[in-house]
Design goal:
The chain is of the alpha+beta class and 118 residues long. The chain is built from 2 helices and 6 strands. Helix 1 runs antiparallel to helix 2. The longest helix has 21 residues. The two termini are 21 Å apart.
Length: 118
């Protein structure tokens, strides 16, 4: 899509990208990715993992996971966040802590994107 600005969750913080941005390649973090189209409409997605490339006034996002904010089931994301937090706070024997942390980050990204989209 043709856009005039975007905010991308990088692995080390949010990247604000405007026209004529310097070329870059960065790892994606988990969080809301928002962009404003030429018509002024703001769109939001929840993304987690992957890469973003900026070159020659083009932004390419290769996300491991992406979901449009208007398709997010907030109640389900809240439940997933509660489950992940419980697993991290009180890990049972055999619980994969890295997987629980990843689930928590995905749920937080989904909830942040839904909130940002309104």
């Amino acid at each position: 899509e043709r856009v005039v600005e975007t905010e991308v969750p990088g692995a080390n913080g949010t990247l604000g990208i405007l026209p004529e941005h310097a070329a870059l390649i960065s790892e994606l973090g988990c969080g809301p990715l928002s962009f404003k189209t030429e018509s002024g409409q703001r769109r939001v997605l929840a993304v987690c993992g992957g890469y973003v490339e900026v070159a020659a006034n083009h932004v390419r996002v290769l996300a491991n996971q992406a979901e449009h904010a208007d398709e997010i089931d907030v109640a389900r994301a809240e439940a997933a966040l509660r489950r992940a937090n419980e697993r991290l706070l009180h890990p049972a024997p055999g619980v994969d802590v890295a997987r629980a942390l990843s689930a928590m980050q995905r749920a937080q990204a989904r909830l942040a994107a839904a909130k940002q989209a309104g």
